[in-house]
Amino acid sequence: MKPSQNFGYYGPGSVTWKVAREAVIMLGGSRAVLMQLAHPLVAMGVSAHSSYMTDPLGRAERTFVLGELLTFGSVEKAHKAARTINRLHFHVHGTLPIDAGAFDRGTCYDARNQELLLWVHATLIDTLLLCYPLFIGPLTAAEQEAYYQESKGIACLLGLQPENMPRTVNDLQQYVNDMVHSNRLAATPQARQLARQVLFPPIPTIYRPLMHLHLQLTCALLPQPVREIYGLEWDMLRQHIFDLSARGMRAIIPHLPMHLRELPITRRLIHETVSENDVKYARHILHHSPLDSKPSGHNCRCRYPLPEGVGECFA
Fold first, then answer.
1. β-bridge mates for residue 108, sequence order
2. Predicted model pTM
3. Contact present, 135 and 24 (Cβ < 8 Å)
4. Which residues contact 278 (CB under 8 A, 6 or more apart)?
5. Is residue 313 one of the residues assigned to a domain?
6. Is residue 280 part of a domain?
7. How far apart are CA 1 and CA 295, in angstroms?
8. Which pLDDT value is given to residue 122?
């Protein structure tokens, strides 16, 4: 890697930056979360060990900011964010109190479990690859593949080992489809309680009508088996309205200037990362000192050395 191309784990030429900088893809956030919570062991871990029930908006904001740092920050910022996430989730473990789908009462859950890590990662990738074509425009097969392959580096930082990830994006999507139609996803009291917090967070009354739109949008994006898990109704009329709305967004959003399509935090992080890279490159030219960008040989095969506490536990 050339010194001038050290833009964290991605960079201006990556499909990840192309997709993730679009603010509209955040509309799929609740879809990803509800799919994750449909896994009984994930739901139990979140219910017992997170602040989702007491501070859903704060928890969502913190998660989003850490995700932005992983995606758009420098290598150092990405490592710090990964370390924070891993530390927060290091003690997430326990047992399932009831039978749920394929899981018997007493089944152990652990946030470092590779199956749970994979499900969380897969739902995020699947959701983003669904939302970008719906709201922005098509991605080629090569771009979809590149996006998934790029995501493996950050998944590694958060504890998911490469050998446990589907090989290709088609394999990943098949995995998600198989999970959705299996008994490994099931309704639990914890999942339904958390879903209510996700769909109807405590916000000022004036904004409550927006939550109805939020509900309809999330229902539109969810696979039918997951809608059924949460008891969410859907029909052809609602689907038709959603399809028309999405078509309108695709006609308008790509023609807007980028500063209207990305969030301020995204724009700031991109600017900081590009600026830091320019400074490093200038120093390299002035002092003729090589920049260390060689792979570390770490068993995760990430592009950069992993400091202590990164890639050791679940995020």
1. 95
2. 0.87
3. yes
4. none
5. no
6. yes
7. 10
8. 98
User: pLDDT (tens digit, 9 = 90+) per residue, 136-185?
Assistant: 999 999 999 999 999 999 999 999 999 999 999 999 999 999 999 999 99
- Is residue 27 a part of any domain in this protein? yes
Does residue 306 surpass a pLDDT of 60?
Answer: no
Residue position matching structure tokens 């260390």: 292
Q: Which domain holds residue 108?
A: 3-287
Sign, CA dihedral 156-162-167-172, equals negative
Residue 252 lies in a domain: yes
Q: Work out the pLDDT band at 245, boundaries 50, 70, 90.
A: very high
Number of domains in the chain: 1
